[in-house]
Amino acid sequence: MNYTTQLVSLYEQDLNLWLETTISDLKAGDFQRLDVENLVEELASLAGRDRRELRSRLATLLEHLLKRCYVNSEYDYAGWEETIDRTRFEIVGILDQSPSLKNYANSPELFSQAFNFALSRMKKNQDYQLIAFPDRWEFNSDIESLLSINFWE
């Protein structure tokens, strides 16, 4: 079994060990030993992961903004605002680490996906069946606004 075949087998058997081996080979400049096919696959997956994480966090943010703006429940306000703050912090962290995602964060397609998901969750929730949530976001939808404005004030 040649080294590349061993690496592919290692990739399939123990991803963490494969990663450590690949990192070691890269640091040593041993590019002949790299499992390039799986390395490219992992890097592509990593790029997609950040987009998925941003989409998920944005949906969570919108879900809690919807609750805070439209549900009259003073008892719950502090918890929703805490989740809004924490989610905003996480989104800022993602964008600080990968500034190129800011264009994606401002894309109408991403906002639409996240808003529609958040809205559908609100409408499915038994606790909010009588709440008249808007079918479209009534406020600014750019990422800077979503990360800074308390729309309920």
Describe the protein's topology:
Blueprint: H1 3-13, H2 15-28, H3 36-70, H4 74-97, H5 101-105, H6 108-124, H7 143-148
Helix pairs in contact: 1-2, 3-4, 3-6
Explain this structure.
This protein is 73% helix and 0% strand. With 153 residues, the protein is an all-alpha fold. The chain has a domain at 50-148. Helix 1 (3-13) crosses helix 2 (15-28) and helix 3 (36-70) crosses helix 6 (108-124). The radius of gyration is 21 Å and the shape is elongated.
Mean pLDDT score: 92
Rg calculated over all Cα atoms: 21 Å
String of helices and strands: HHHHHHH
What is the CA-CA span between the terminal residues? 66 Å
| Helix fraction bin | over 70%
Which segments are poorly predicted (pLDDT under 50) over 5 or more consecutive residues? none
Pairing-aware structural class of the strands and helices?
mainly alpha
Largest sheet properties = none
Which outline best applies? elongated
Care to count the β-strands?
0
Proportion of strand residues: under 5%
**Number of DSSP helical runs:** 7
Quick overview:
This protein is an all-alpha fold and 153 residues long.
List keywords for this structure.
153 residues, 7 helices, mainly alpha
